[in-house]
Amino acid sequence: MLDKIINIGEGLIHHGKQNNRVYVMKTPKVNHNKFIESIEELANDKDYEKIIAKVPEGIVDEFLDSGYNEEAQVPNFYKGKEACSFVSKYMSPGRRRVKNKSTIEGVLKVARKNKSDLCKVRLEEGFECRKAEEEDVLEMAELYRNVFLSYPFPIHQEEYILSTMKENVVYFGVWDKSKLVALSSSEVDWRSQNVEMTDFAVDPEYRGKNISSKLLQSMEEEMKSTGILTAYTIARAVSYGMNCTFSKNGYDYGGTLYNNTHIAKGIESMNVWYKEL
């Protein structure tokens, strides 16, 4: 069963047993203590193991006073001014334990060592990078199904991709002639002028060609042109490729969300990276 997206008051919540968590995507502007009580009641009722919340810096103390801990931060997240904190509360002792912490630290060490501002990537002859359109949805869903055994959002469904296209997500793809070989998405918060660079998928036969960097650079150009000020990502903490891709493109490390997201075969920790555009 896929996780659900619901509203609690003015807050936007993603929750369900696949990720076994409550994810607060947007916090309400008022009644924070009541909101915290509501999400904890939801977590207890559903026996979820973790609550993770994106919280504006101005109200983060209210969460910290309620027993939450800050796992990551993105400066200038809201309209290029106010920071966003990723705060968590573990409802299960087992969810708190990080079994592969040394691996995560090793990936970070390599990624941060390679931090730079990568020159503009040029693809091999015959490749094209462009925005994905509605008529591309069938092959987009097929690529996501082939790359990801599971994912926190239903990107393997054509209907979901189409609905997000019509709302606030801009997809980019790379084609080898007529074959779609890579995808990514820009999930835009127009009001707060930030964007999550996410949903990267590269056909295994095409890896090692800097395609993810090309997608990222193309998305950055598009987002800059629309007035977006801050970009960030939540990348698999054990992925050398994705962490190095963001570091090499000038992103800074913001923190690690431990045992946070169900990807591939189980719950994984995720690294937050950010950049001012």
Helix amount: 25-40%
Structural class: alpha+beta
Low-confidence stretches: none
CATH topology of the largest domain, by name, is Aminopeptidase
Write a brief structural summary:
With 277 residues, the chain is of the alpha+beta class. The protein has eight helices and 13 strands.
Secondary-structure blueprint:
Layout: E1 4-8, E2 11-16, E3 21-26, H1 32-46, E4 50-56, H2 60-64, E5 69-78, E6 82-90, H3 93-96, H4 101-113, E7 127-131, H5 137-147, H6 158-167, E8 169-176, E9 179-189, E10 194-202, H7 211-225, E11 230-236, H8 240-248, E12 252-263, E13 266-276
Parallel strand pairs: 3-4, 10-11
Antiparallel strand pairs: 1-2, 2-3, 4-6, 5-6, 7-8, 8-9, 9-10, 11-13, 12-13
Structure, explained:
The chain has two domains: 4-96, 3-Layer(aba) Sandwich (Aminopeptidase); 101-276, Aminopeptidase. 30% of the residues lie in helices and 38% in strands. The chain has eight helices and 13 strands. It has helices at 32-46, 60-64, 93-96, 101-113, 137-147, 158-167, 211-225, 240-248; strands at 4-8, 11-16, 21-26, 50-56, 69-78, 82-90, 127-131, 169-176, 179-189, 194-202, 230-236, 252-263, 266-276. The strands form two sheets. Strands 7-8-9-10-11-13-12 form a seven-stranded mixed sheet, sandwiched between helices. Strands 1-2-3-4-6-5 form a six-stranded mixed sheet. A hairpin with a 2-residue loop joins strand 12 and strand 13 (266-276). Helix 4 packs parallel to helix 8 (240-248) and helix 5 packs across helix 6 (158-167). The N and C termini lie far apart (37 Å). The model has no long low-confidence stretch (mean pLDDT 95).
